[in-house]
Amino acid sequence: MIRRIPMIRRIPAMAAHRSEGLLLAVAVGVVALTFGVLAVAAGLTLAQVAVMSALVFTGASQFAAVSVTAGDGSGYAAFASAMLLAARNSLYGPVVARLLPRSIPGKVAASQFVIDETTAVASAQADAGRARDAFWWTALWLWVLWNLGSVLGALLGSVIGDPSTWGLDAAFPAGFVALLVPHVRRMPGRVAAIAGAAIALVAIPITPGGVPLLLAAVGVVPGWLTLAKLRRATTGEQPTPEQTTGERSTVGQATGERSTVGQATGERSTVGQATGERSTVGQATGECSTAGQATLQHSTGQQQRPEPPTREPPTREHR
Amino acid sequence: MSWTVIWAMAAGAYSFKVLGVIVLGRFSTGSSSVFNDVTSLIPAALFAAIVVVQTYDLNGSLTLDARAAGVMAGTVAAWRRAPFVVVVVVAMSVAALARRQTLL
User: Fold this and answer.
1) How does pLDDT run across A246-280, given as a tens digit for each residue?
2) Residue A42 in 3-state DSSP?
């Protein structure tokens, strides 16, 4: 009893990244109830429902397989439709790989939890520490509530009404809207999101379930082209003295990582700072800008193709 | 549904996950590269698509129903920097209300 008191006190102060995972998992748990109900209605036994939720653990695939079975589809058809929906989880690997244990056995074990929700909550966090924490807490909540919900749904069957009447079917996409926000703060992410959404919208009526999401991954291409364009504009304009020395780390800060690129190109205040610095650096920058370009090209290698320094300042281009 | 299908699904779904983490994840180094730049945009593209699918897809056809009203309201809340909980609750309430009113 005494031990519980600090736990209770901590709940209101629960870090945002953990509560996001928990809330999403609660919504998923209610969806799991529906899954349990449908699965039993489609002829699965309680044991089959429990094993499927624990081991397959990717909701969309399970719903697809069950609905194919309910419609008297073959086992092959059920399997195939489930795999079409499971394939997208491969794309999340590179997104979360850095947050997972370094050892191969650790990675192999953690892979089971690499799905939409865990990737969404983890990748919405600002730093790697919080992202790692969010990944594991979301994984834990999801796994527990998904299994609990499935089994309860299978046991209770049709006693449970249709959860869509509570608006739950809107809760899930809305949760993803909230988790999408940090990804669309900057232009490349915004372009990728719009492209992905548009591709999915076109693909829904003409492709089988799961394929719209796989095709939507192509949306990263225009996003990346935007990123490359922004970066070219940035490197074409702002060679600081540190950069002219050709140190990779400095160049990396200005041009390399996504977050920093955003700071340099996306937000007005930071651009202001960059421009301010430039004026302090003054003529030195201007004079050795050509040399700077040469070194820059050399040091950053394949990352970017800097253009002549006569380009428009990035500030005006993207606002 | 036979047990074979369930085991096959478990193996297949897990293989996709491991493939992503072990094989594709190998190229993710943390420093800037074309691969990292491209994969850093995957969440934006895929989660936007998930929102679209979850909102407008009804068994393979585009549908405008109470979900759309709810998600729209949730999006407005997110736009106005509402916390996660508020976004979700607003979406649920509006969708439930729209359904009850049989507006959609």
Assistant:
1) 333 333 333 333 333 333 333 333 333 333 333 33
2) coil
Q: Are A88 and A213 in contact (CB under 8 A)?
A: yes
Chain B positions in Cβ-Cβ contact with residue A61 (cut-off 8 Å): 9, 13
Residue A176 neighbours by CB under 8 Å, 6+ apart: A116, A120, B47, B50, B51, B54
**CB atoms closer than 10 angstroms to residue A166:** 16
Q: How far apart are CA B13 and CA B33, in angstroms?
A: 29
When pLDDT is averaged across residues A98-121 and rounded to a whole number, the result is 91
Distance from CA of B23 to the nearest CA of A (A): 8
The chain A residue lying nearest B13, using CA atoms, is: A86
Give the pair of three-digit tokens for residue A233.
Answer: 């504009």
For the record, the structure tokens of A96 come out as: 């979360």
3 state DSSP class of A282:
coil
Span between the terminal Cα atoms of chain A, in Å:
57
The pLDDT value recorded for residue A13 is 52
pTM for the complete prediction? 0.72
